Amino acid sequence: MTKRKPVRVAEPPAAAAVAERDPRPPVEAIRAAAFTQFAERGYPVVTVRDIMKACGLTQGALYNHFKSKDELLHDIIASTQGELERICQQAVAGAGDDPRAKLAAFVRVYVLRHCRLRVEALVANREISWLGADRVADIRRSRRAIRDILVTILRQGVERGVFDPPQIDGRRDLKAMAMALLDQCTHVSMWYGPGGVLTEEQMAKLYGEMALRAVGAKPQ
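The chain above was modelled as a monomer; its predicted structure follows.
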């Protein structure tokens, strides 16, 4: 399990210390506030009152959309996970027939999302452990679907002779390699921040190149 640590989220100026009503629709304002509060302080210590104060709404407003804090946590993780699955599918479908292009496209969108939506990624990967098994099932299904997209790309590359990934004792475990690549790409959200040497696009390109080298991709 990823070690829990606080996340620094940009704060408003001191003059805006008193929360004003978020201009977004209430359900979106609640989701945004929940992501920020859970990222900064962790799910167990954040109260419904904390979340609603952060978005300038009353506690009653939350219960118009969510039955509990637990349901809210599931909602925000499931929504960001579902969108990640969608964009990965879309990127691969639009990359053509070459497994090398598919892998590069997959890694690009995956890394870009984890660079741009660090708070969402951190909450989804760190706070999921607080959900019960019944609420986690759909999230884990989506994660397996994303892994299987990557496994399929790797298998196609090996079958077509354009990937030559490492073998251990004469065997290749493509599922293990897919999980290793996903772990590497996911954890960019733990340390990447804007203003560094590489832009988000450059970081995504770097990770794509590393992935291609890791699977022994042959030059096109």
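The chain is about 60% helix and 0% strand.
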